[in-house]
Write a structure and sequence with these properties.
With 253 residues, this protein is an alpha/beta fold. It contains 10 helices and 10 strands. It has 2 domains: 174 residues, Rossmann fold (3-Layer(aba) Sandwich), CATH 3.40.50; 71 residues, no CATH class. Bound molecules: adenosine-5'-diphosphate and magnesium ion (MG).
Length: 253
């Protein structure tokens, strides 16, 4: 059965100082699945992900053309406030960036902004999101300690919990395990497999084996272009291009 598409990118090009970083990108991202954006370093994975969240707005030197439809609305050509667009998406970066405050407040911060202020309700929500990120058991006795006292792996799960607390529909994760030890990486990977029931996940990685473990759908990029996109099974077992085959064999990286 054909899945619904949560995000569709159409004819997306992105230039910086006359240099084309993304070249006529056309991709579809199925809802409630894990889509992995795969490719060697420097091929444009992060830039493609940033454009989905309009983080490209921050860089005045970036010129973006094309359409990015999220729930059929073109987020590049809309009068809608960019915060409203970003609210649909939780972002997880390569390194965890917890806010310089307590574990509790890292989660409560966003909840307070969106209007939830009653203490007992806040407590419940904080617990809920920490559980959702599989961190609750490890931190329930030390919620008032600074987030910086956590290990890097715990900090990354805290950032995941913080992202989930704004109630997004999409999770964008850019090499979210690259700073983590193998056990912490496994925890994040396991979490993603659970979360895809309820969220559309876009995961950037250059780790082939991680892609093979997690992907339902693969977008393979090379030098600013999408070379191939396919269901994971097909991508790994029946690659269609010479470049993909070379990449899968490990001769490009
Ligand atoms: N703000 C920027 N200014 C100039 N070049 C950039 C900028 N951001 C990214 N690039 C270039 O765009 C290309 C793709 O980068 P990136 O999307 O970070 O690749 P990846 O995430 O696949 O490693 C690289 O050549 C990088 O140097
Ligand atoms: Mg990158």
């Amino acid at each position: 059965m054909e899945a619904n598409h949560k995000i569709r990118v159409e004819n997306l090009s992105l230039r910086v100082n006359g240099h084309e970083i993304l070249k006529d990108i056309n991709v579809s991202i199925p809802e409630n699945k894990i889509t992995v954006i795969l490719g060697p370093s420097g091929c444009g994975k992060t830039t493609l992900m940033k454009s989905m969240n309009r983080l490209t707005d921050i860089y005045p030197e970036m010129h973006v053309r094309g359409r990015i439809l999220i729930d059929e609305e073109d987020i590049l050509n809309t009068h809608k406030d960019v915060t409203a667009i970003r609210k649909k998406m939780g972002l997880l970066s390569q390194r965890p960036y917890p806010l310089p405050m307590s574990i509790y407040n890292n989660i409560a911060f966003g909840l307070r902004i969106s209007g939830r202020k009653k203490r007992d309700l806040l407590d419940k929500r904080v617990e809920h999101y920490l559980k959702q990120a599989s961190l609750w058991e490890e931190v329930k006795g030390r919620l008032r300690e600074p987030a910086s006292s956590l290990s890097i792996g715990q900090q990354q799960r805290l950032c995941l919990a913080r992202g989930l607390a704004v109630d997004p529909e999409i999770i964008l994760a850019d090499e979210p395990t690259s700073a983590l030890d193998p056990i912490s990486s496994q925890e994040i990977e396991k979490k993603f497999l659970d979360l895809k029931q309820d969220y559309t996940i876009v995961l950037v990685t250059h780790i082939l084996r991680q892609a093979a473990r997690l992907a339902d759908h693969v977008i393979f990029m090379y030098l600013g272009e999408v070379i191939e996109q396919a269901p994971a099974e097909e991508f790994f077992h029946h690659p269609r291009t010479e470049i993909t085959r070379a990449y899968l064999k490990g001769s490009i990286n």
